[in-house]
Amino acid sequence: MNTAAAKFAAPADIEAFSQAVRGKIRADSKVVRVCIGTGCAAKGSRKIYELFRQAAEQSMDDVKIEAKCVGCHGFCERGPIVVVEPGEILYQRVEEPDVAEIFRETVLGGRVIERLLYEDSATGTRASKAEEIPFYAVQKRIVLENNGRIDPARITDYIAQGGYSALAKVLSSMTPEDVIAEVEASGLRGRGGGGFPTARKWRSCREAKGKPKYVVCNGDEGDPGAFMDRSIMEGNPHSVIEGMLIGAYAIGSEQGYIYVRNEYPLAVEHLGTAISQAREMGLLGKNILGGTLSFDIEINRGGGAFVCGESTALMASLEGRAGVPRAKYIHTVESGLRNKPTNLNNVETWANIPAIINRGGRWFADIGTKNSKGTKVFSLVGNVRNTGLVEVPMGITLRRIIDEIGGGVRDGKRFKAVQTGGPSGGCIPAEHLDTRVDFDELTKLGSMMGSGGMIVMDEDTCMVRVAKYFTEFLQKESCGKCTPCREGLAQMLHILGRITDGEGQVGDIVRLEELADLLEGTALCALGKTAANPVLSTIRYFRDEYDAHIRDRHCPAKECRGLFRYEIDEEACKACGICLKACPVDAITGEKKVPHVIDQDKCTLCGTCWEKCPFTAVMKV
Amino acid sequence: MSEEIELTGQIVKHYGSDKGMLIPMMQDLQAECGYLPIGHLRCLAERLDVPLSRLYSVATFYSSFRLAPKGAHDVTLCMGTVCYLKGSPMILEAISREFNVEAGGTTADRLFSLQAVNCVGACALAPVMVVDGKYYDGVTPQSAIEIIQAFPCEEETAEPSAKEGAK
């Protein structure tokens, strides 16, 4: 079988094609892989790719050199990332002028350019390969394995790496029941936040009465601070499609939908390309691989509403209505989209399926803890040294993720909390950093796994303000259908607002707890039921900060305007006059060689002097 | 009037008159017109045989729809958790003050529309501002204003702020 675009007629065709493509790749031994994920692209990687492509075209070298766009490597902080094969040499923070040098030295000459390698800031050692960098070394990549290796816009790349072999296996040798049993053996639980056993959901939907049945992929990744699903959809869209195909076969569905957030244009583009390629090659459409399975996928772009991440709201949106959830007395697997049986899974869940089928449920179940199997992708962000996407086995401690992969808190600050689970999650303090990452353990701490956002906060973060941020977010995103969520969140926000303004009242904490209790017990959907988690977890672990705001009118982290003062350190002040000129209300006095002073009566606490002082002599007290 | 009929006709046809595809239809309409003009919405409602109020409910529920024309440029500021922690509220304040525009609004001269969104999913680059689809990382109140001020002379905005992120 040749490697030109072909249409597969039988399961065995895929392996033959894959071999043919791989055979061809071996001859073309030199490849430059440029990351074009949103992070690297923001730092100009598309231009860098273009330059490599031109250099490769103009090269007189006998060996064929290929420049390739690939998906996110995860190490967005260090972008743009360029990997040169052979040798898997990873260059970080590559800039346009570096391209010629990389091409001359590394691609043609086989020499490593030291200054572009990752340098460990603690030890000063440089790493030439990804696996030598602690950020990657601690990770275990299943879902992200091919991210950064394959060109998401080329189906041949995916197939060469073993893509669609799971589909071939399923269609040639497994019954739908076998597939569900395999997924059941893996112990896979939904990666979107709920953690519901995937196989049980599939079985219920398979057994539900009514036709047609729908398979839906939830790509409405709305949690602020999370971008796992974006990177999977952008970097390896075929893995999601293959997962959905296998799910469709197991459940008995002919139509799938991928609901993608409006803010992810690149994901929509790559998924669109991937779907049309899969159709051309006979992997989507009628009688796939010559068998009885017929299945196709449509992409729907979200309209920009957080609540649409909730299953019933998402389905309402797919029906062309406002995304308002409904009560779930009847499960969506029985009556979901257009009142038909509907199976909804998250992007990451779908992307796990091909690996489970290929390597077996047992292999997957060997990774992780008793009730949480496999790996989980987190977006490790905030005040850590290395930020980016990380995939770790379940059961790893929070401390290892933050210290070993993340490199610890940046700028020498002290760790205060890690926020997991998105706006409905909670803040976990330092004393619980040795907790194992697992659906149940995180819930016990008053947080949750959620979809996988992990935001590290340092000592300068005010936890009351964090609680207020999430409450404000959820209050804005509340659809307004049920009263507890609509009114309860507004009341909570009102109370948090007065606390951060220094007008908190004795009893406010109790009032917050009462409202939280009400929400949890009576709100209609998951958004409302869990909305109080950020408030409850910060009260649980950082009560002293609430007390300081209310009782002392003081913000310990010095973030809440009005609850701290600015003063000038006499010793550090060089009397340069910069703050004096910059002060908009002339509250600063001083002369040459005389340390300046802030008149507290006049000061409006705007912070301009603090920002402008070149000697950091202005202090928050 | 005929333009409204023609455009909505094309869109409805593209989706096979499926009422369930109302949101994609409205997205296409907005992509074409820049916003959702009332005349077009009336036309669309008529063709699909759904009440105009249903279109209005969808248009006002989802934050990406707008019922008024937007500015020549799109400025989107990310207010996700990480951007928020790293100072995006200050950036929003600075832009609002400098150009006299609120989040969700358009400047009086229609130069740009300002949007504050939940999260653009580029948290490793925080704080992030997206201008006409181009991502700027490590933005400060000062640099945000400079990026916007450079609008009239387009060529100058082509310089990315990559250096800032590398520091």
Topology:
The complex is a heterodimer of chains A (621) and B (167).
Chain A: H1 11-27, E1 30-35, H2 38-42, H3 45-58, E2 65-70, E3 82-85, E4 89-91, H4 98-108, E5 118-119, E6 126-127, H5 134-137, H6 155-160, H7 165-173, H8 176-186, H9 198-207, E7 214-219, H10 228-235, H11 237-251, E8 255-260, H12 265-280, E9 296-301, H13 311-318, E10 342-346, H14 347-359, H15 361-365, E11 375-382, E12 388-393, H16 398-405, E13 415-420, E14 426-429, H17 439-444, E15 453-458, H18 463-477, H19 483-500, H20 508-522, H21 526-529, H22 533-541, H23 543-551, E16 566-568, H24 578-582, E17 588-589, E18 597-598, H25 608-612, E19 618-620
Parallel strand pairs in A: 1-2, 7-8, 7-10, 8-9, 11-15
Antiparallel strand pairs in A: 1-3, 3-4, 5-6, 11-12, 13-14, 13-15, 16-19, 17-18
Chain B: H1 2-14, H2 22-33, H3 38-48, H4 52-61, E1 73-78, H5 81-85, H6 88-99, E2 112-117, E3 129-131, E4 134-136, H7 141-149, H8 162-166
Helix pairs in contact in B: 1-3, 3-4, 6-7
